[in-house]
Every structure is written in structure tokens, then in C-alpha cells.
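Here we describe the complex-level prediction in full. Unlike the single-chain runs in Section 2.1, the two entities below were treated as one system.
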Amino acid sequence: MRVRSRRKSIAFFITLGASLVALAIALNVGWIILNWREVALLVLGIIFFCAIIFGLVINTTFLIREIRRNEQHDAFINAVTHELKTPIASIRLYLETLKTRNVDEDQRRQFYDNMLADSDRLLKTVEQVLRAGRARHRRRGIANSVIDLSGIVRECLDLVRITYGLDETSLSFVEAPSARGAKVSGDIDELRAAFTNLLDNAVKYSDEQVNVSVELAAIDSKRVAIRVADQGIGIPNAQLKRIFKRFYRVPGMFMARVKGTGLGLFIVRSVVEKHGGRVFAESPGLGKGSTFTIQLPRL
Amino acid sequence: MNAVLIVEDEKHIADGLRYNLEAEGFAVDIAVDAESAEDLLLKKHKPYDVVVLDVMLPGKNGFALASTLRKAELFVPILMLTARGDAQDVLRGFEAGADDYLPKPFELAVLIARLNALLRRREWLKSASATATSQEQLAASVSRVPKVIEFESKMIDFDALELRSGNHTVRLTVMEADLLRYLIKHDGRIVSRRSILEDVWGLREDTDTRAIDNFIVRLRKYIEDEPSKPKHLVTVRGVGYKFISKAGAKRN
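The structure predicted for the assembly as a whole is:
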């Protein structure tokens, strides 16, 4: 199939690049051995060879990076197609059912609920994609209102609790006295999206037993932090930075069980950076949970 | 009552399908991932008449599940549901051993019609192997290619989807049989890759036609004595393929 044959051709070009580098190095060494008496020729040759080797290394690195980006983009298109088509398929299925069959009242109500949930899911995906598109425009169109941080975090918590049917022990919230009444300046919609994405992830990447704690605390007089800690599947150390890149998803079977577009954390990062803050992830490793921290400048 | 297994992790779609298929008189079971489907089909040996299989499953995907089932010699008809539905995906599904596919979102009536078509084929198979072939069934399976073809020492039974050579029997998937039938129909003539894509699989998109080559390689393994030196299924460079039954071929 195409996928497989593309793999093969990619492998071929990477091997070609690597062999060319090896060949150039071998020739260079040979050149030095052959010409070590003729200084001028030797120096010139070494310079040229080094230039060739340098060019080849850069070329191969670029190739590998481009391939990786392409693969991520493919995976993203796949995921978005799935996330768009699945709720549409479901809504359509229920509409056809309601149209063609005599559905009793209870069942009918259940079908309506399912369709509503699916249209919410559809809307969420569309908003996520649009928001990711906007995220590339730096600072443009960002509203500057004064936002009560504790209020908006509580709002997001309630929303996520309702969505996933969680109670206050499985998704808990602690507000440190130092952060009481903390306000930030920015766009309430964007910040809400960023917080909800983090909370969503924390629940999504938890096992059956959800245990997420959210903490709002002041770091100093100028900055506040929102910490979202889960006991979920965790993140390998090498991936802690990459996960914020657009379309990036940690590879492997473990993550493939959870569906996602690779946009969520990218949106979080760009929203937070637009607000003059920073976001980072910490995790003791796979299976040991992870903690995400957003730091924002306090008003 | 026909039993159908729905392998689908999207709860709403699975529930909606269950409601409709039960209304159509099917007995419905749902598996939420490939592992639980394998458990039902391969470990518990539950006798399903047809499987509706979603491709994007958590963990092991639908393609992998289909090939596992075929490797385990379980030839229950599989209808695949794919979200992408582009030609590459469809071909990959057929290659994995699916018998039919529907892109999501699908029309309910079409899904039910396709399921019934798969079941009908299965019914023919059952009755054909249980009793001697009756005239009615012969009439039902009339096509331009005879239902049993013999060439050299091999015999292909398109109704039973079997290929027998000597005392060795190979089970063909519906897709393999369709391709073979098409090639045999054009015995001695060259068929292009594009015409195979369009006529056999009904794909009109701009597909990488090389995808067919994998099927040809597989068919060669079945019908050629030396698959690397094909005598019946020959490649015509730059054009496509040609089936040659040879002068001694005998047809029913």
C-alpha cells in the first residue's frame, strides 16, 4: 500500500543521506592520509570536504524533520476527520431512526440526549480547530478585560465535572489564601479554553479512577499559578516539552487508546503566552501521573 | 435469527446501530475494542453471522482485527465502517480481509441492505455445501463467469469461495474472488490497473493503482506453482495484468 511504500522510500533517502555523510568522511580521511605532505592541497581539500559533510548533515536533518512534521500532519487530519465525522454519523443515524421507526417515548428522549451530546462534541472540535488557527496570530484580537481567576477556574471545573459526571472529590479544587481575589488581564474566552483543555486532558488521560486536583496559588506578588495534577498515565521525560507543539501526540499504544487531535496543549501554550505567562508539564514518568502548571502575571 | 457483532467504541453509534438492527430482527452484541471482539469470536467461538467493524478503535485498529480473524481462519463476513473512506483506506480494508465497506456517515438503509447482501451470500454458501446444488441456486448465481472454473490442476469455486489444487484448499475473501473472477472474465486480454480499480472495487478516485499489486501477489501465491515466475497471472509492464488460462484449460 501507499503508506508502506512511502515508508520504504523514506528509509531509502535517509539511508542515502547517512551513507553519503559516511562516504564523505571516509574520503576526507583518505585525502588527509594521501596528501599529508602537501599542506596547501591538504588544507583546501579538508575545507571542501568539511563543507560537503556539513551540507549533507544539514540536508539529512532537514529531511528527517520534514518527514516527522508530515506524519504528524497526517495523523492530525486523520484525527480531525474522525472527530468531525463520528458525531455527524451518530446524529444522522438517530435522525434516520426517528424518521423511519416508531420509537417509544423513553427511547426517543435518550436519542435526543445522544444527539445533543454529539452536537456538543462536534462544536468542541470545530472550536478547537478554529482556535488553533487563531493561535498563530500573535496578540491580535485579544480582549483586555479584568478577570477574576478563581471565578473562571471554578466555572471550568463545574463544566468539566458535569461533562464527565465527576464529584468534588475526584476533581478537587484548593485555593491558597495567597491567591484569594487574584485578578489577571486578558481574554476570558481564551483563558477558559486553556483551563478547560488542561482539565479535559487530566480526566481523559486518567484511568477509570479519576483523581485530579487543581490548585490556585500565588508564586509571588506578581505571579499566580494554576496547577492541575492527575494520577493518570503520565508523560515520558523526553516528551515533556514536545507535547505543547502543534499536532504533536506522544506516540505509542498507551496514548492511542485516547482520541485527540494534538491541538489542545498547543492552544493552552499559545493562549498562556499571549497573556504573558508560561506553561509547563512535570511527570515522574509513564503511569505515574502528571502535573501541568500555568503561570500568569497578576494584576 | 441472524446474529451480528458490532465492534465500535463510539457508544452512541453502537447504541443506535443496536436499536435499528434489533428492530430488523438481528440478535446484536457490541464489542468496544478489538480485544473484546477477539475474545468473543476466537476464544468463546460465538457464532456470529456478520461483523460490523469500525476502523478507528482504541488500541488495535479494525484493519488489524480483520487480518487476525482471517489468519485464524474465521471467515465470518465483515462490513467495515471507515471515517476517512478514501480509496487507500478502503483498499487497506479489503486487503485485511473485509468483505464490504461503508464510509461514515452512512445511510441506515444502505447499511442494512449491505448487511443483508452479505448474509444472503453466506446463506447460499451454507446451502450449497449442505445439499447438492439445486437448479434454483444455479439460477441465482448466474454470472458471466461460471461458478466453478478449472485450469491445469486447480479448481476455483466462486460460490464456496474456495480454491482447490490437489488436496489443498485455500479460502478466498470476497474481494480476492471478485478480482480473480474479473481477470478470468478477460481471459487472454490485458486489463489495466485503473479498470480493475473501477470495475472491481468501484473506486473512481485518483488512487495509487499500485495498491492492486499486493492483491495480485496474493492471488499468484494461490494459483501459480512458482509465484515468482507466473504463468497464468502475468504482468504487462506499464499497463496492467493478463490472465492466461492456457490452451488446456477446461471450463464448466
